[in-house]
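Folding problem:
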Amino acid sequence: MPADLIERLPQLANGDAELLRRGRFLDVTFLLQIGDRDYLVSIHRGRIEAMRPGPHVQPRWSFALRASQAAWDAFWEAVPAPGAHDLMAMLKMDALRLEGDPYAFMANLRYFKELLALPRAGNCRAVP
């Protein structure tokens, strides 16, 4: 996936009324690692307020989602293969690592599933 598409994630997320409603009680900063690139994502009341590309010096985050570029590319296919179709499946298949405090992630699992699926090819919600 081109870097510019993932960097459009704030625009896609903040323009999605359903996602904003789902995350209206969510305030968290997490680290999203895509291969050798990482992003510090700050969410306030469901809106992505900042998405800062790394490298970061001692970043503060609640949890980190780390996967290879190939794993994210498989997840973002229009029709992902089994094991790459869902964040929990990726965790089970060891394609995705969840580090840190999992509470905010698990308590808002559907929000994060929908948020990170926005760049998926053919996602009607991802169309600006």
Notes: The first strand starts at residue 27 and ends at 34. The domain at 3-120 is CATH 3.30.1050.10 (Nonspecific Lipid-transfer Protein; Chain A). The longest helix spans residues 109-117. The beta strands are 27-34, 37-44, 47-53, 63-67, 96-100.
